[in-house]
Amino acid sequence: MSQLLKEVSFLDLPIIAKGKVREMFDLGDSILMVVTDRVSAFDVVFNELIPDKGRVLNSISAFWFAQTSHIVPNHVLTADVEEYPAVLQPHKDQLRDRSMIVKKAEMFPAECIVRGYLEGSALKSYRKDGTVNGIKLPSGLVQGDQLPEPIFTPSTKAESGHDINIDMSDLCELIGEEDAKLLQETSLKLYAYAAEYAYERGIVLADTKFEFGRIDGQLVIADELFTPDSSRFWDIDDYHPGQPQKSFDKQFLREYLETLDWDKTPPAPTLPNDVIQKTAAKYREAYLRLVGHALP
């Protein structure tokens, strides 16, 4: 297990953004992305940290960016701290395996979500009127069912609060028809490739989200890719439609929180050690199953 990281306070660099988990710093022509061990649930960040979470997320993204470069280019320059500029070398041990240097991209103002199975907000929408993001689905589907074919269900990228689901016509209006169709096509290709890869390793890729941008006019995929935070991964051996599935992510944490008398607003409750350790184990197992070896 590596040293836990809550805040990236050791870098004297201009900060571009600080999210729930990631922090981004300006390197001039590029960006340093650092993944902390912070964890959030129901849009609330907890005080406790999840051991190795940042390393798992960063390393899985680096793996998938390399695996999918034949489908779409990405924004990664390097994830090897030995190749980092001199200003970062004193901090390379703190940054190792949990950071990457990426090209600056002009990002599209949308989340590109692909769903192969019925869960989450899609399940709620389907139960309401039989549709998901304006897409009519067959009647009689139950929670966790595989869809007849994967569907593209974009959303807005909210600065605060929840993203808003939109349909293809909304996306065309937002970014233009040509780009909307390109993002849809690329997202579906990425999902199909990763879903097959994961299935061969005993994992169902239920749904996932992407962020795209352009660098010098070329489409690239950016941010993170097929991580347990951006995707629903289910164990095939435990997959049973009609009920919630066991996930390789924060599901154990969410299930624990549902047992508490907590209204899902700050301040966050204190997490017991067994919940922290079991959540960490799920992240490490996701890495092992997907990458093929244990986290270094």
Description:
The protein has 296 residues and is α+β, with helices and mostly antiparallel strands. The chain has two domains: 11-104, Phosphorylase Kinase, domain 1, CATH 3.30.200; 107-238, 2-Layer Sandwich (D-amino Acid Aminotransferase, Chain A, domain 1). Helix content is 29%, strand content 27%. It contains seven helices and 16 strands. It has helices spanning 53-67, 92-95, 121-129, 168-175, 177-199, 251-258, 273-291; strands at residues 15-18, 22-26, 30-35, 38-41, 44-49, 76-78, 99-103, 106-107, 110-117, 131-132, 135-136, 146-152, 155-156, 203-215, 218-222, 231-235. The strands form four sheets. Strands 8, 9, 12, 13, 14, 15 and 16 form a seven-stranded antiparallel beta sheet that branches. It has a five-stranded antiparallel beta sheet with strand order 1-2-3-7-6. Strand 14 (203-215) and strand 15 (218-222) form a beta hairpin. The termini are close together. The mean pLDDT is 95.
Secondary structure elements and pairings:
Layout: E1 15-18, E2 22-26, E3 30-35, E4 38-41, E5 44-49, H1 53-67, E6 76-78, H2 92-95, E7 99-103, E8 106-107, E9 110-117, H3 121-129, E10 131-132, E11 135-136, E12 146-152, E13 155-156, H4 168-175, H5 177-199, E14 203-215, E15 218-222, E16 231-235, H6 251-258, H7 273-291
Antiparallel strand pairs: 1-2, 2-3, 3-7, 4-5, 6-7, 8-14, 9-12, 9-13, 9-14, 10-11, 14-15, 14-16
Helix pairs in contact: 1-7, 4-5, 6-7
Distance between the termini: 9 Å
Number of strands: 16
Mean pLDDT: 95
Secondary structure: helix percent? 25-40%
Query: Which CATH top level class of the largest domain fits?
Result: Alpha Beta
In the CATH hierarchy, the third-tier topology of the largest domain is known as D-amino Acid Aminotransferase, Chain A, domain 1
Percent strand:
25-35%
Order of helices and strands: EEEEEHEHEEEHEEEEHHEEEHH
The H-level CATH homologous superfamily of the largest domain, spelled out, is ATP-grasp fold, B domain
- Runs in which pLDDT lies below 50 for 5 or more consecutive residues are none
Structural class based on helices, strands and sheet pairing: alpha+beta
Number of separate structural domains: 2
Q: What's the CATH architecture name of the largest domain?
A: 2-Layer Sandwich
Instruction: Compute the CA-based radius of gyration.
Output: 19 Å
Number of distinct helices: 7
Biggest sheet architecture: 7 strands, antiparallel
Shape: globular
